[in-house]
Amino acid sequence: MLRSVTLVLVLSAVTSVALAHDSQAPSSIEHYPLDRVSQRIHVVHGTHQLPNPTNRGFMNNPAAILTKSGVIIVDPGSSAEIGKQLLKKIRKVSDKPVIAVFNTHVHGDHWLGNHGIRDLYPKVPIYAHERMIERVNTGEGENWLKLFMGMTKGAISGTKVVGPNIGLKGGETLTLDGVTLRIHHTGHAHTDGDLMIEVVDDKGLFFGDIANTKQVPNSVVPHDANFKGTIAAIKTMLNGPATLFIPGHGRSGGREMPEASLRFLEELYVSVTKYYKQGLADYEMKDKVIHDMAKYENWDNFNEMGRVISFVYREIEKENF
Ligand SMILES: [Zn+2]
Ligand SMILES: [Zn+2]
Question: pLDDT tier at 220 (50, 70, 90 boundaries)?
Fold first, then answer.
């Protein structure tokens, strides 16, 4: 409960500058193309904003993996409407039925759109890490729905909590309609229930929010993250066979994308550790760390660094206790 209260406070503070809205405006996902990034993978690269009435909650990278006679969806966005808009876009490249949905983690921008897919495909299996399923089913699902309802001023209304129903642990290899997916979970990283999905034949990897393009990692919900675990997850994936990386937010790219997230996190960890060893408290080191990290000041959410530093500090403190 504490976790969700903190989350509401944090996110509502961040969105107090939300844009003016028109509830009749079309969902913002309409304005974003479905980009083909490999033979089978298509991604709608979403907006760098928090949910607000104008974007109607849309802020992530919903994607489709095309198989011979079906479509696999990854992270269908933050509302039933967005899930349906995604399907409409997919219809331009495939008329095949949806055979599976994957959710990378429990944050609402990635999975509230399940409802839109299930409305049209009532029996479609939805896969996620088993810890995510547990969290959705023990109240967090409803909390995310409420949070997004508030932030979008009701633009996602009609959306229901439709959680994943097939739990994975990581380490599985699934072959769905001839497409092989390797499922990765390297421990607590962006959340304690992340899945990363490797599309083996395309050498593509869905990172979830473990690596995002030019965005301060773990900045929106840092209390849910393990920073060292995020570093470990990125390193493990960079040692794997993937050459195309699809982040939860921002543009897809080659190795340079996760390498930049990794560099950021390692430098942040070194900086906070240095001042921790000098005996400084988190609020005392904040300006110094921000100064050390100044070359990233054009990254999204850099204004959230103060909060991020506090959570890195707590993690280092726990390790040294
Ligand atoms: Zn997230
Ligand atoms: Zn996200």
Answer: confident
How many angstroms separate the alpha carbon of residue 107 from the centre of ligand 2? Answer: 6
The number of folded domains in the chain is 1
> Which CATH number is 258's domain given?
3.60.15.30
Q: How far is the CA of 280 from the centre of ligand 2 (A)?
A: 32
Distance CA 152, CA 160 (A): 15
Rounded-to-integer distance, Cα 252 and Cα 188, Å: 23
Distance 137 CA to ligand 2 centre (A): 19
Give the DSSP letter of residue 32. Answer: S
φ/ψ (deg, to 5) at 208: 60, -145
What is d(CA 302, CA 15) in angstroms, rounded to the nearest whole number?
15
Neighbours of ion ligand 2 (CB under 5 A): 107, 109, 209, 248
* Average pLDDT of every residue of the chain: 92
CB-based contact 160:24 (threshold 8 Å):
no
Residue 213 φ then ψ, to 5°: -80, 120
Distance 208 CA to ligand 1 centre (A): 7
Ligand 1 centroid to 157 CA: how many Å?
Answer: 21
Q: What is the pLDDT of residues 142-155, one digit of tens each?
A: 999 999 999 999 99
Of 23 and 91, more confident: 91
Range of the domain at 287: 2-320
d(CA 286, CA 160): 40
pLDDT at 305: 96
Going through 67-134 in order, the beta strands assigned E by DSSP cover 71-74, 98-102, 126-129
Alpha-carbon gap, residue 63 to 40, rounded angstroms: 10
Q: Do the beta carbons of residue 86 and residue 116 sit within 8 Å?
A: yes
